[in-house]
Amino acid sequence: MKMLVANIEEVFREAAARWTLIAYFVLSSLFILVFASAVNLDIVDGALAGAKLFGQDVQMGGASIGIEQLVSGFEGAFAPVLYVVGIFLAIFSTAHLVPRLQEKGTIDLYLSRPVARVPLLLSRYAAGILLSSLNVIYLVGSIWLVVIWKTGVVHPRFMLSAGIIIFAIAVLLALAFLIGVVTSSTAVSIMGSYGIFFLSMILAAHKQIEAALSSAVSAWIVKILYWAMPKVFDLQAMLFSYVAEKPLPASLDNGLLAPLGTTAVFAIACLALASWLFNRKEF
């Protein structure tokens, strides 16, 4: 526990010293301010009578929209945007944790103490998740409060969606830690994590890709890749369905358990392999 607390303190101190913490806060705050100033709603008797987006009138077709319906649909559409923003900021600001740890002076200092390597690595992972989670909660929570302020409608699903974003960050950060242990490169860790994110977008359409392939072997390769890789894009689709209270997309006809379970297994496998390699490394 002492090691965990010490690593959390060090990660936050390092983030502040490198301006990462300030940049995190400033970028998130700018995003929130742009959102708050861009959306202006005219609500009459609990219904939306008019709206402006970035100063431009939104055509209502002469009809008013129920405010509950508006909030549910709007937050459902906006949650995937926050999903991408949250992941982008999290990976960019935490991918350096392992490469930085393995630098000559830093790792020598750690190894000179009676500290086991695996708990050291996992405590830095926990510190990175905590740093990312605080920003996600600040980002999502602030947007949620802005929506409540402008509409008077409290929609808890939007705030709870932060959990899905944090889960996706935890998965990609586990991959970034594995790449960081192998390469000791922050740039490669970032590129690898974002590469898996975009690969997930392609593999989400694996059924259509399999149907278009002429070779059964190629179709099986695509299927294996889909189930072996984290379902980051599917998580984004789940996020939209959950917040907007819509049915799951057809691509998730197997339900939630299989994509969530295999994605969690991927993260655990990455952390386990990273821990094993880190424990065997010569410094």
Classification by helices and strands: alpha+beta
> Which percent range describes the beta-strand content?
5-15%
Question: What do the pLDDT scores average to?
Answer: 81
Which regions contain 5 or more consecutive residues with pLDDT less than 50? 52-60
* Euclidean distance between termini CA atoms: 25 Å
> Main beta sheet, described?
4 strands, antiparallel
H/E series, N to C?
A: HHEEEEHHHHHHHHHHH
Shape type: flat
Number of helices: 13
Can you count the beta strands? 4
Notes on the protein architecture:
This protein has 283 residues and is α+β, with helices and mostly antiparallel strands. The chain has one domain (2-37, 66-280). Helices cover 75% and strands 6% of the residues. It contains 13 helices and 4 strands. Strands 1, 2, 3 and 4 form a 4-stranded antiparallel beta sheet that branches. It is flat, with a radius of gyration of 22 Å. The model is unreliable at 52-60 (pLDDT under 50).
Which key terms come to mind for this protein?
single chain; four-stranded antiparallel sheet; 283 residues; alpha+beta; 6% strand
